[in-house]
Amino acid sequence: MDLEEKRVLKSAITAVGSYTPDTILSNHKLEQMVDTNDEWIQSRTGIKERRILADKDKATSYLAIQAAQDLISKKNLDPSTIDLVLLATITPDVHVAATAAYVASSLGATNAFAYDLNAACSGFLYGMSVASAYISSGRYKKVLLIGADKMSSIVDYTDRTTCIIFGDGGGAVLFEPSPNQYGWEDEYFRSDGTDRMSLRIKAGGSLYPTTQETLDQGWHNIHQDGKTVFKYAVSEMAHVAEEIMNRNQLNPDTLDYLVPHQANKRIIDATAKRLNLKEEKVLMNIEYYGNTTAATLPLLLNDYETKFKKGDKLVFTAFGGGFTWGAAYLTWAY
Ligand code: UT7
After folding, report:
1. Cystine design at 183: which of 4, 10, 55, 137 (Cβ 3.0–4.6 Å)?
2. What architecture is the 3-177 domain classified under in CATH?
């Protein structure tokens, strides 16, 4: 492949959008629900509040559609020109019908095919690689990648170790052939399934189909062994981010922004410290949204979009259930 061909096939993010519901679940409100307090939550996680999709009739598709519509109107995009709608989520509307198909139809993406992608908190990161690869192959011209999760639908609000962490939200990005030399540069992805029960919804799948017992045991809610997940996340997020920086000759001065999954401020701080990054280079909004799973990365991109300049060097990193984790390097194209 000659250099000119490579340039043409480079993929880039060309638009972003997001949506978070209006209802705020603050630490103070949680104090009335479980045995916890604002001081503990803020010092252990960095979270002050999270957004909740309170309307019982609205599901993850609603978050996804709102986020995509935000992108579509900002970009003035004709939805019928979208080739593919990818939805990263662990909270699909229903188990079997791909939520992405409903989202695509609702958006008027009448010429697109659509499917869901599940890699827990790494879903959006992996989804960027998939979207980018479809563009780079020359097969499609417009891939809409959405990360959305209605975490409140799987959280047990009597379990103080999980209900303080998660929130609802959605974000979207458009991948297209790069208009310049900037875009997707590199990725380093890993997974390890040996500890899969450390972060899980145990029942409702083929291993533990729904029974009265699984319902009684609360196995349909999300549970985690927080300490194990924390330990892995701290060491592995830093490891992959360091690897991707080294192999792309990036250093703390030349890197513009670290875009880390928002699971716990202490995990992000530890990662940034290991990479020797100044605070202003580390994007964070966990304070306001908590952990929105597949939505954390696109929510960050949308919140910081106006700060980015063409050519800025961004390193993404995420860690989630599976375990799944990784880092990616992207240069901002607009
Ligand atoms: O996106 C990827 C998925 N998730 C993550 O990355 C999360 C990773 N894990 C974490 O963020 C942290 O482990 C948690 C925030 C979940 C917990 O923080 P921790 O510092 O690991 O707390 P801990 O589990 O070690 O618990 C310390 C103490 C315990 O009390 P004792 O045994 O020392 O008396 C807990 O019972 O804090 C207690 N505790 C709480 N206290 C007040 C646990 N949850 C709460 C709470 N409020 N909400």
Report:
1. 10
2. 3-Layer(aba) Sandwich (3.40)
